[in-house]
Amino acid sequence: MRRQDLAPGPVRQESDPVAPARRVAEDEGDHQQERHQQPHRGGRAPQHTGDSGHFDNDTAADFSGTLDGAAESERTGILREALLRTISAVEYLDSDEAAEAVAAAALIAAQCPGGALVTTSYGQDEPIPALPEELRGQAVRALDRVLVKPSELAELWDGSGSGEVWRAGLAELRAVLVAAGG
Predict the structure, then answer these.
(1) Is the pLDDT reported for residue 6 higher than 50?
(2) What φ, ψ does residue 93 adopt, rounded to 5°?
(3) Residue 13 or residue 47, greater confidence
(4) Residue 31 pLDDT level (bands cut at 50, 70, 90)
(5) pLDDT, mean over the chain
(6) How many angstroms separate the CA atoms of 98 and 146, rounded?
(7) Sign of dihedral through CA atoms 37, 55, 137, 113?
(8) 74 CB contacts (<8 Å, ≥6 apart)?
(9) Fewest beta carbons less than 10 Å away: which of 18, 62, 149, 157?
(10) What are phi and psi of 154, to 5 degrees?
(11) What is the distance between the alpha carbons of residues 65 and 33, in angstroms, rounded to a whole number?
């Protein structure tokens, strides 16, 4: 059991009616198999996404693993690179790059006043060092780019029927970052 599983967190609103059952299955050790069995309800749902949280997708979970596998001194650079890849995307923005940028923005916002701690079991286990304030502005620009066409992640969410909930989550992240000087 990961330490985030033990920490109290905010009450999660379920946008996916099978998410509670999926979490029970994950607790029973079927994590990998269940995460890849997603329902499809009208339109093309974002692949491997069961909820609208910033870490509720395979790419963000893998990004967390990358952070955990890196030395603490390298984690700031990994976050910065994820943001800059998204900011610099002129043409089509791949959903994996966008999901990493959203996850990075959530970790940065967690260190801001009013920012929500990342308590999901898909988040990183290892601590994130105190981050430089300039990352806040980069996180805002990356979130803005994720929402601008052409963005595969935005298209997938909008086509899933849960785009409004997902966009509201990004708007909350963005507001925290902007209020903190981003």
Answers:
(1) no
(2) -95, 115
(3) 47
(4) very low
(5) 77
(6) 6
(7) positive
(8) none
(9) 149
(10) -65, -40
(11) 18
User: Which amino acid is located at 118 in the chain?
Assistant: V
Calculate helix-pair angle for 72-87, 134-146, nearest 10 degrees. 40
Residue 87 to residues 5, 68, 144, 148: CA-CA distances in angstroms?
32, 24, 8, 11
Pair 15, 51: CB distance under 8 Å: yes
Query: Would the pLDDT of 2 be above 60?
Result: no
- Residue indicated by tokens 């943001």: 83
CA distance 102 to 111: 15
Token pair listed for 165: 């909930």
Higher local confidence (pLDDT), 63 or 10: 63
Rounded CA separation 1/72 (Å): 22
Give 164's contacts (C-beta < 8 A, 6+ positions apart): none
